[in-house]
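Reading a protein record of the kind used here takes little practice once its layout is understood. Each number in the token line that follows is a code from a learned vocabulary of backbone shapes. One such record is shown here in full, so that the layout can be seen directly:
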Amino acid sequence: MARKQATTTQRKQFPDISVDAFLADTDRKALEALKKVPLLPMVIRKFHESGLDRWIYCWNMAMSVRCGPKQYGSLHKILKECCAILDMPEPELYLSSNPFPNAHAGGVERPYITLRSAIVETLDDEQLYHLIGHELGHIKAGHILYQEVATLLMPLMEMLARRTLGLGDAAQLALVAAFFEWSRQAEITADRAGLLCSQNFRTSASANLMLTGGPNRLSHEASTDEFLDQARTYQDMNFFDSIGKMLIFMTYGMGSTHPMPVHRVQHLEHWYESGNYGRILSGNYPKVK
């Protein structure tokens, strides 16, 4: 798969676009279920009282390079374009040294996106539109508070249950399970935002392919068509294989913050083929009131 520079084609922008235009129903329903867990308000309150959001922001700034017009200008240009597409304020953008390809959005009070060096090395410019659009989708959809709470407090639930919050084991497990389920569904929403920014389904699918295969010296041999075919095959497995898929989910997927890669690209393809993406592109989308 040859690396491509960003095209000079003007991407369409979506003035006043509401997050409802690309919010996945499964994301909405999972968040509604999460909010019904009685312990959530207490956990959110503890998060705010601890000042963790400010600490994480400071740590990220101390350990990463802030991008701008005069610092990694190519990355900042893509961010600026993606913000214009999704009609949202521009968060801070950072680049950190890390050999494992990934990116994340953070900052409840001061939103930011941090790209790892390996992801910039792995994706071409066109694919970076999808990646940065994906992270902007998390910010626009209001995911950051719940993501940070899950990332920081869920590993500490065992300790907090006995020493701070006084949670029972059953209540604790219910909260953790609800967080994991919502987190997986939130990725579906963010992928749609990524597609709205790349404005090319194959580009977005290839970005997911590169993230799944990781950086390697044979990446030029990667095939988006084969990856999509693999995802469709996985989706259409027979009954007995479906039992195996269910067991895999119960042993691995339920404790994961992200959907399995082939499942994820299938969700994006279904949304693309449903006509919803095309309607947004033609200017027919929910707007902020």
